[in-house]
Each structure stands twice: as C-alpha cells, then as structure tokens.
UniProtKB/TrEMBL annotation:
<dbReference type="GO" id="GO:0006636">
    <property type="term" value="P:unsaturated fatty acid biosynthetic process"/>
</dbReference>
<keyword id="KW-0275">Fatty acid biosynthesis</keyword>
<dbReference type="Pfam" id="PF00487">
    <property type="entry name" value="FA_desaturase"/>
</dbReference>
<keyword id="KW-0444">Lipid biosynthesis</keyword>
<keyword id="KW-0472">Membrane</keyword>
<dbReference type="GO" id="GO:0005789">
    <property type="term" value="C:endoplasmic reticulum membrane"/>
</dbReference>
<keyword id="KW-0443">Lipid metabolism</keyword>
<dbReference type="GO" id="GO:0005506">
    <property type="term" value="F:iron ion binding"/>
</dbReference>
<dbReference type="InterPro" id="IPR036400">
    <property type="entry name" value="Cyt_B5-like_heme/steroid_sf"/>
</dbReference>
<keyword id="KW-0479">Metal-binding</keyword>
<protein>
    <submittedName>
        <fullName>Stearic acid desaturase</fullName>
    </submittedName>
</protein>
<keyword id="KW-0560">Oxidoreductase</keyword>
<comment type="similarity">
    <text>Belongs to the fatty acid desaturase type 1 family.</text>
</comment>
<feature type="domain" description="Cytochrome b5 heme-binding">
    <location>
        <begin position="162"/>
        <end position="240"/>
    </location>
</feature>
<keyword id="KW-1133">Transmembrane helix</keyword>
<dbReference type="InterPro" id="IPR005804">
    <property type="entry name" value="FA_desaturase_dom"/>
</dbReference>
<dbReference type="InterPro" id="IPR015876">
    <property type="entry name" value="Acyl-CoA_DS"/>
</dbReference>
Length: 252
C-alpha cells in the first residue's frame, strides 16, 4: 500500500496539477480529471486553482517581482521562503478563465480540506483498518509514504532550464532569420519544422512573431496530443513580459 501512497499523489500533482491544468499539455475526460484532482489533493499542495495560479505566474514572469518564487531572491526563498508570508496579490496577473469554467476544479477548490483529509489519511488508514485490522499500521504506512514521497515530487521541471526571452530579443532573433512563435508563454523555434508541418507551410508561417496559443489549442484544426509532443522538441525559451508587447499580435 505504501507504494501506491508514494506514487499516486505524485501522478495527481505532475500529470494533473502540472501538465493537465497548469500547462494544458493534453486533454482529459471528466473521470480522469476527477481521479487526478482527488489524488492530487493528497499531496497537500493546496487546490488546483491556487497551484496553477502561482505556477503560471512563475512561467509568465520568471525571476521578476511578479514571480511567486523569484530565484533572484535566493535559493531558499524560491524553494521554501516564498511560502512564508506569501502575498498572492503581488503575483503577476494570469489567465485562469479555463479553470473558472471547469466544474472539477471549482468543486475541488471549494472542498479541498475534506478531500485532502480523506485521501491522505482517512482512506489509507481505513483500508488497513478494515482490510486487515491494522489501524496503527495503516497510519504508519501513511507516514512512511509521506517521507518517501518528497523525493518523487522534488524533481525540477525541464522548463526551468530554459532561458527567458523578452520581446526585444524575440523580435531581434526573428529579424535575423529565426522563425519564432509563442505558445502558452513558451517560445518555440519552428525554423526546421516549417517544411514538415502536416497542415502546410502557410499556416505555420503565419504564426511567426505571434502569440499562437489560441490557434494551436482551439483553432479550426485543433492539434492532437502527438502534435503537442512534437512541439516540445522546439522549445527554446520562456517568454518574459510579452503581455503588453504582444497585444497587437495575439490570435484573433
């Protein structure tokens, strides 16, 4: 049971909170969303809505005062210190409209405490207690899993290794011949992919120098999960401060 308690919450956090809701890396049916929301709550990293808010702010305003865990304030602050006396009102504004319209996210946000208590304590202890009359052992398994779970959840996302790129550098690189586009606050160099684009060169060329998020995720021809996987190979930077500069270049 301890193995399940170690890995299941990690799946809820990484596949659910992080990849599904924060980065919208794939689509999920309602049943899968409920599963990820429930087991993700057991990590005690608060609700999906709260977690996604600060994570999107981090990627959009990397290492600035609007970044919740600004690394320029030191290693300890970016990993632990930001949680002490944190001030969400100081975080940079991000679009959470997709979460506001997701009933699973809203339900989990409203009832987070009872869900977290049930999944992290009640259910595991109950299984051991009712299953083989070992209530104390069930509690011990929970605590053991908590200690081991830290290593599983502490890995750094590869996106954090990418450099940041502001608007001036973005346009400068394009003027030098690089074919860059921005999707979900990540800059991609699609120079080598234009000729291989299944949808034709005209469509992908029109995305150069623009925020193509809307086109990529909900355009006339929505992209498949395979397309999203292919796109990851072309990531080159995290967009920084693009909001105002891209106002005239966003998808209509």
């Amino acid at each position: 049971m301890s193995s399940v308690l170690i890995f299941a919450p990690g799946v809820g956090l990484t596949a659910g909170y992080h990849r599904l809701w924060a980065h919208r890396s794939y689509r999920a049916c309602t049943i899968l969303k409920i599963f990820l929301a429930v087991i993700g709550a057991s990590t005690w990293q608060w609700s999906i809505k709260w977690w996604v808010h600060h994570h999107r702010a981090h990627h959009q305003y990397t290492d600035t005062d609007k970044d919740p865990y600004n690394a320029r304030r030191g290693f300890l602050y970016s990993h632990i210190g930001w949680l002490i006396g944190f001030n969400p009102s100081a975080w940079g504004a991000v679009d959470l409209s997709d979460l506001e319209s997701d009933p699973v996210v809203l339900f989990q946000d409203k009832y987070y405490i009872p869900i977290a208590l049930a999944t992290s304590l009640g259910i595991p202890i109950g299984i051991a207690g009712y299953g083989w009359s070992d209530w104390l052992g069930g509690h011990a398994e929970v605590e053991r899993a908590r200690l081991l779970q830290g290593d599983f959840l502490s890995h750094e996302d590869t996106l954090r290794d990418l450099p940041s790129m502001d608007w001036s550098k973005f346009t400068s690189q394009i003027s030098r011949g690089r074919c860059l586009t921005c999707i979900d606050n990540i800059v991609y160099d699609i120079t080598g992919f234009i000729s291989d684009h299944p949808g034709g060169q005209e469509t992908i060329i029109s995305s150069i120098g623009r925020d193509s998020t809307a086109t990529f995720y909900s355009g006339y021809h929505p992209h498949s999960l395979n397309a999203e996987a292919i796109l990851t190979k072309y990531r080159v930077a995290i967009a920084q401060g693009f909001e105002d500069d891209l106002s005239g270049y966003k998808d209509k």
